[in-house]
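agent: user wants the structure for Endo-1,4-beta-mannosidase from Streptomyces olivoverticillatus. delegating to structure tool.
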Amino acid sequence: MRLGSMHFGVNYTPSRGWLHHWLDFDPDEVRADLDSIAALGLDHIRVFPLWPVFQPNRTLVRPRAVEQLAAVVDAAAERGLDVGVDGLQGHLSSFDFLPSWTTTWHRRNIFTDPDVVRAQAHYLSVLAAALADRPNFLGMTVGNEINQFSGAPHPDPDRIDAGQAGRWLRRMLAACEEAAPGRMHLHASYDAAWYDGTHPFTPAHSARLGAATAVHSWVFNGTAQRYGPHGAATERHAAYLVELSKAWAEDASRPVWLQEVGAPAPHIPPGRAAAFTEATVRNVLDCPDVWGVTWWCSHDVDRSLADFPELEYGLGLLTNDRRVKPAGEAMALLVREFRQGGLPSPEPRRTALAVDAGDVWEAPFRSVCRPGGAVFEAWMRIASAGGRPAVVLEQHADDAGHLAARGITEVLRAEQVP
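agent: tool returned. relaying C-alpha cells verbatim.
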C-alpha cells in the first residue's frame, strides 16, 4: 500500500455487465479488465460492492460476495494495483441501490434508524475485516455520494440535519477503523456538501472526518454550462474544489483525494475529452497535499444496458471492449511524465481568498463558493491571471499560526479581486 507519493487511478466499472457483474461474477473477465487498467500505468482502483447484493437482509452479509470482493483485491495485487473499497452503494450513475429492508414496507431513515445504522456499521466492518491483512488494501470509503439520499433533489430523501449527519459519519468511520486499523478510511460526498448551504453534509464533515478529504468534481453541475467546455473555470473546477476543501481542514497538510472526475459529454465534447483530461489533471497536480487522482471511470458502459443517462455511457478511459480511448491515452502520458520527474512538486500557495460561509460546521452561506458565486468567481479570476490562489475561512484570515502552517502570506476578500 503506497501512501507517501502521488497516486493515479481509476474507478473500476467492469466492461461486462457494469457493476451488475457481482451477480454473474467472472474472475477471468475481472483479470482482463485489470490488465487493461494496469497497462495505462495506473497504480490503484476504487471498487463498488452493491449494497443490496452484499447485504440483502439486515442480518446477512453474504460470505460468497465478500469472497468475490477479496478475489478482486487479490487480482489487483497481482497487477501492482492498490484498492480502495466503497461500502454503501448506495448511489451510482443515477441509480439507487438500497436493500429492500430500507424501502417501501420497511421504509426507514438510513441515517438515523438504530437498526439500520447498526446493520450498516456491521456490514462495513465485515468488508474491512476481510481485507485488513491485504497489503494493497487502501481502506474503506463509507459510500459513494451517499449524501444525495439526505435532501433535494432526491425524490424521496431521508431528512437529517448537520448534527445527525456528523454522528452517522463518525459511527461508520469508527466501524471501518476498528475492523481494519490504520488504513485510509474516509467518506465521499457530491458537491452539494461544498455549494449548498441547506445541505446536511457539510464542508467540515468532508475536511475533518476520516483520514483524508475526498472531492468529486463534475462540471455538469453548471460549470461547463456557464463557462463552456474550453473555459478556464471548467478546466480548473477540480483544482478549485481541492483548494476549497483545505479551508475547512484542521490539519494544514491533510491529504485531499480527487476521487472522482470525468469528461461528461456533451458538456465536454468527445473530441475535447483528452485535452480536458490533461488540463484538469495538470491543474490539480499544482495543488499541494493531493493524495491522488482517480478518474471516472475505467470502462464505458455497454450500450446493451438500458436507462443510463446518455453521458454515463462514454465516461471510460477504455471502451467496453477494452480499447484505450483518447482520454485514456492522455492519462497514461501524464502518469508517465510524472513518474519520469517531468512534473515538479507544487510550491505552497502564498495568496489565499477568504470565504465567509458562517458557522464552521454548518456553513449556511457556502453558496458563495458555488459556480457563479462570489468566491468561485474571484478564485477563477486570480487563477486565470496566472495566480495560484488558496482558500481560507474568514475565521482564520487573521490567524498568523494557521496561515504560516499553510505558507500563506496574503489574504484577499472577493471584493478586492478586480
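agent: one observation worth passing along. The CA atoms of residues 93 and 312 lie 7 Å apart.
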